[in-house]
Amino acid sequence: MKYTFRQLEVFLAASHYQNITRASESLAMSQSAASSALKELESQFDIQLFDRVGKRLQLNELGRLFRPKVEALLAMGGELEQSLSRHTEAGALKVGATLTIGNYLAVGVMAQYMNTPNSPKVSLEVANTSSIARRVSDFELDIGLIEGELHASELEVIPWRNDELVIFCAPEHPLANRTGLTDEDLLAATWIMREPGSGTRQTFDRAMHGLLPDLNILLELEHTEAIKRAVEANLGIGCLSRVCLQDAFKRGSLVPLRAAAHRRFDRQFYFILHKQKYRSAGIDRWMGLCRELRVNKRFRQIQARYESGTLYPVAQSTAARWPETQSHARSPARRWPARPASGNPGNGALRTSAGCYKRSSGSHPDAAPALQSVRRSGLQ
Known about the structure:
Blueprint: H1 5-17, H2 20-26, H3 31-44, E1 50-53, E2 56-59, H4 61-86, E3 93-97, H5 99-104, H6 106-114, E4 122-126, H7 129-137, E5 143-146, E6 155-169, H8 183-188, E7 190-194, H9 199-207, E8 216-221, H10 224-232, E9 237-241, H11 246-251, E10 255-257, E11 266-274, H12 281-292, H13 297-307, H14 367-379
């Protein structure tokens, strides 16, 4: 730009006081510096903004034309300077979350974060732990919320809250009435699991040390709701976060199972940030709201509405992207939002990371007809 903000300030002061001496005093400048700034502004554009009568400066028609525009520009500059000085205003965020967190915890945080005068947008990317970590490392996301442990030299990993996995089955499953599971029971069972690379699978593999090579894993699926539906169809047993199973346990559609005490399924959720990422006011606010999630009753109400299907996770004012992981309700009284017009797969899509079913070499002999039943019920 050919002009400076200082030249514009001198122009406004001179138009107000109609005298260069008083204008320079109001700006704490010398008279010669103020006079030079005004002359440079006029000479750069080959214009004259004042009619000069002795020591008096009178705005001419061109000066009167530009004065409101200069006032507006300097007002905007002042607001920007104040914002930069305070840096307390939360702006738009690009957040990444793993499936359990994105589908069951992040909705309340988004609602609270956007409930501010400037209504900042939140773009929410839901994927597994390894994908979220990679995108945070590449500065494609401002912050990540993950379930699994992570070791990356360029990332800062900050503990958030405790969680635990729970083994579960259908009420009709032979293990449903067992008070505890032995290692032999775990080896004999057919498993429906999350895919490798997810935080849930990482915790499960750690808990099952010594048994992993011999476990009968029938399906490895990317979505928690698909796993729950497959287990409800009695294809096998599963292991997911208690966060996403609480409602199913209350309804009685799934039953929790207890493994031997030496099988530890506890874990933590984490925030991840790039070490070179500036910790903005928006990031600090998001992390603060996440920590409040443990005790805030309003959050639990929002979560309950979402899980019951009466609150869709994508508000009109957000650019959030969600994989369609919710299963269709069994009760006709429950209302689900209309399917988005995009080409995303249907709700509850049952698939592996390769986009198809994955069967282990030790598949259950009755799996094929049961799988067809699952497909007919709307899982695929």
